[in-house]
UniProtKB/TrEMBL annotation:
CC cofactor: Mg(2+)
Self-association and partners: Heterotetramer of two alpha and two beta subunits.
Assigned keywords, A-Z: ATP-binding, Ligase, Magnesium, Metal-binding, Nucleotide-binding, Tricarboxylic acid cycle
Catalytic activity: succinate + ATP + CoA = succinyl-CoA + ADP + phosphate; GTP + succinate + CoA = succinyl-CoA + GDP + phosphate
Functional description taken from the UniProt entry: Succinyl-CoA synthetase functions in the citric acid cycle (TCA), coupling the hydrolysis of succinyl-CoA to the synthesis of either ATP or GTP and thus represents the only step of substrate-level phosphorylation in the TCA. The beta subunit provides nucleotide specificity of the enzyme and binds the substrate succinate, while the binding sites for coenzyme A and phosphate are found in the alpha subunit.
Gene label: sucC
SUPFAM superfamilies, alphabetized: Glutathione synthetase ATP-binding domain-like, Succinyl-CoA synthetase domains
Binding-site residues for ATP, renumbered to this chain: K46, G53, R54, G55, E109, A112, E117
Cofactor binding note: Binds 1 Mg(2+) ion per subunit.
TM helices/strands, residue ranges: none
Protein name (Swiss-Prot/TrEMBL): Succinate--CoA ligase [ADP-forming] subunit beta
């Protein structure tokens, strides 16, 4: 689960991290109070969406010459003008896609006297099987660009879970970021604080870009991006309360109610598969034959008829879907259960696009019989390759 920058900073501030004073604006009526709550003389107005690249983004309604989604304001009136111009507009960044995201909340923050910008993140490094810090002196830039152009400027520091972030670990991170004097002392304390927050709140990513050193040689969290392990949210009611469903795809929200693994994509062939690996292979082979999947959908190994029906409804609710491929390999999952769910869903919502079904494994004959005797206009497939070719051909006419 992702949260907004101002929410992430609220969490980190609770752990003692150095965060500038700020105020969220969720309605234009709050604008003046938010600006007046800060001392100035510099106010930074930040769009709050679940996507990076906000500063370089453009608002659809304001044209290409307009300023981006993060604006430095040098007076109260300028800050208010920026708030009113940005609120409710659609911000397009490198991470939102062409559709962009509507800015339904802003964050007004006290300006910072920046001397250096650094990069810091904490994540699970699967290569070493540990939580790790990733740091760089090249803050304020896309870390992917740094990794491509100057990989030697990135330092990865794995952390032993038994010991946590030790003084020795913190010292290595301070060395990598070239921190000296009071900034080094504050930085070492901050690294341990951030690791504590990461572990205790079951985060999957904590990214601070930039982490700054001010001209007074103090460190400060200038931006914060945090994601949480959804499987651990039952332990954190306070974190779950931060969820902003307006930032999520409605189909993904509906899928979560049925414990379905669903991710909306940009293609036109809907997929219903059991097993993450098979789902990935199904999407790959659709692309191999020249089409694009509209979703990733794993109904899981223990899906019921009701879950399958819900999954089918979610797929058909996507207006971009021009064809559907059901690809089931029955191990724990039984083919007849899938078939019953598909038939029930089609009878309830109708079938306006081609449907290809490939069943194999447990109860496969029973499943095929249910499909064949349903009276539905279903295209049968013998294997995955055959299924992919048939659905692509049906969609492309």
């Amino acid at each position: 689960m992702n949260i907004h920058e101002h929410q992430a900073k609220e969490i980190l501030k609770g752990y003692g991290a150095p965060v500038a004073k700020g105020a969220a604006v969720t309605d234009l009526s709050q604008a003046e109070a938010a600006v007046d709550s800060l001392p100035g003389p510099v106010w930074v107005v930040k769009s709050q969406i679940h996507a990076g690249g906000r500063g370089k983004g453009k608002f659809k309604e304001l044209g290409q010459d307009a300023k981006g989604g993060v604006r430095v304001s040098f007076s109260r009136d300028e800050a208010l003008e920026n708030i009113r111009e940005m609120f409710g507009k659609t911000l397009v960044t490198a991470q939102t896609g062409e559709g962009g995201k509507q800015v339904q909340r802003l964050y007004v923050e006290d300006g910072a006297d920046i001397d250096r910008e650094l990069y810091l993140s904490i994540l699970v490094d699967r290569a070493v099987g540990k939580t790790a810090f990733v740091v760089s002196t090249e803050g304020g830039m896309d870390i992917e660009t740094v990794a491509h152009d100057t990989p030697e400027k990135i330092t990865t520091q794995p952390i032993d879970a038994s010991n946590g972030c030790t003084e020795a670990d913190a010292a290595k991170l301070a060395d990598a970021l070239k921190l000296e004097g009071s900034a080094r002392e504050q930085g070492m304390k901050l690294f341990q604080t951030l690791y504590k927050a990461f572990v205790e709140k079951d985060m999957s990513l904590l990214e601070i870009n930039p982490l700054i050193v001010t001209k007074k040689n103090e460190v400060q969290v200038l931006d914060a991006k945090v994601s949480f392990d959804g499987n651990a949210l039952f332990r954190h009611d306070d974190i779950a309360a931060y969820r902003d469903e307006s930032e999520e795809d409605a189909k993904e929200i509906e899928a979560s109610k049925y414990d379905l693994a669903y991710v909306a994509l940009d293609g036109d062939i809907g997929c219903m598969v059991n097993g993450a690996g098979l789902a990935m292979a199904t999407m790959d082979i659709i692309k191999l034959y020249g089409a694009e999947p509209a979703n990733f959908l794993d109904v899981g190994g223990g899906a019921t008829k009701e879950k399958v029906t819900a999954a089918f409804k979610i797929i058909t609710s996507d207006p971009n879907v021009k064809g559907i491929l059901v690809n089931i390999f029955g191990g724990i999952m039984r083919c007849d259960v899938i078939a019953e769910g598909v038939v029930a869903a089609v009878k309830e919502v109708g079938l306006k696009v081609p449907l290809v079904v490939r069943l194999e494994g447990t109860k496969v004959e029973e499943g095929k019989k249910i499909i064949n005797e349903s009276g539905l206009n279903v295209i049968a497939a013998d294997d995955l390759d055959d299924a992919a070719q048939k659905i692509v051909k049906a969609v492309k006419g």
